[in-house]
Amino acid sequence: MGANLSNMENAHKSSNTSSHILTFHSTAKWKAHFDASKEVNKLMVIDFTATWCGPCKQMDPVIRDFAAKYTNVEFIKIDVDELMGVSQEFQVQAMPTFILVKKGKVVDKVVGAKREELQKLIEKHLNV
Predict the structure, then answer these.
(1) Annotated catalytic residue 56
(2) Catalytic residue among 56, 63, 100, 121
(3) Does the annotation mark 7 as catalytic?
(4) CATH number, domain at 104?
(5) pLDDT at position 30 over 90
(6) SS3 letters across 59-71
(7) How confident is the model at residue 128, as a pLDDT?
(8) Where are the transmembrane segments (predicted)?
(9) Which of the four pLDDT bands, split at 50, 70 and 90, describes residue 19?
(10) Which of 53, 92, 95, 113 is an active site residue?
(11) Which of 22, 42, 77, 82 has an alpha carbon within 20 to 30 A of 56's alpha carbon?
(12) What pTM did the predictor assign?
């Protein structure tokens, strides 16, 4: 599994230059980032994912597309196996789960690989 994880990290790093997807590997760094985000009225889409999850892999290119399209939205990827406490805080029970947050509050949630539903919710909360 270690080799897969490092390959995944490299893939995210290369895509981050064009698409602004943040990946957190430490609960402390995530909490600091999340606390800071409460001060800004910016939509945050948190993608709770797992390396073994097929539908999550299907959504990867979708999230990259959305991140490139919605440049004023912050996209965050959190591996549920890596940051279990964070996924428990957000009551994530299935993958992928997308949590939409604004000023530290959950405003919407999509469970499953539902591209259209996620896009509608991003657009709904974008300018609210």
Answers:
(1) yes
(2) 56
(3) no
(4) 3.40.30.10
(5) yes
(6) HHHHHHHHHHHCC
(7) 73
(8) none
(9) low
(10) 53
(11) 42
(12) 0.85
Please give the C-alpha separations between residue 77 and each of 11, 38, 80, 128, in angstroms, as whole numbers: 13, 18, 9, 23
Instruction: Lay out the sheet containing 44-49: strands in order across.
Output: 21-23, 74-79, 44-49, 97-102, 105-111
> Average pLDDT of 16-20?
52
- Counted residue by residue, the chain has a size of 128
Dihedral sign from CA coordinates of 38, 44, 48, 49: negative
* Residue in this structure with the two tokens 């999509």, named with its chain if needed: 110
Measured CA to CA, the distance from residue 67 to residue 69 in angstroms comes to: 6
> If you search the block for the tokens 């939509």, which residue do you land on?
43
Distance CA 99, CA 110 (A): 7
CA atoms within 13 A of residue 92's CA, in its CB half-sphere? 27
User: What's the domain count of the chain?
Assistant: 1
**Could you tell me the residue range of the domain that residue 82 belongs to?**
2-126
